[in-house]
Design goal:
Length: 112
């Protein structure tokens, strides 16, 4: 795989929760990472925090997002900004996909 180009056919689909949540690391380098996360209806992105800045764009489906105790629904075309170290999570209300961008990249997502 090129350092610059990331073709879908060459990207592994990683199962995070069997039959419920999976992801593809779409592109990455030291300062930036883009990840597509696929959710089945009812799947949960459990509340967590990390040191990375994150933006999340809803590609399809419907999600209930909670960030620092504030909750809203995301539908296709909606996005959120998550500052570093802020508690956040989501519940998928209707099967869908999110596009997450992190800076710096999530080293914990990369296979060693």
């Amino acid at each position: 795989m090129s350092k610059f180009f990331f073709h879908d056919a060459e990207i592994d689909l990683e199962t995070l929760e069997e039959g419920r949540v999976s992801r593809k690391i779409r592109a990455h380098d030291g300062g930036l990472m883009m990840v597509e996360v696929m959710f089945k209806s009812g799947a949960i992105g459990y509340e967590h925090r990390h040191v990375h800045e994150q933006v999340c764009y809803c590609l399809e489906g419907e999600f209930e997002f909670t960030i620092e105790g504030q909750t809203t629904r995301l539908r296709p075309g909606d996005s959120v900004y998550i500052p570093p170290s802020v508690l956040h999570g989501t519940v998928c209300l209707g099967e869908g996909r999110l596009l997450d961008v992190f800076t710096p990249q999530r080293e914990d997502f990369l296979k060693k």
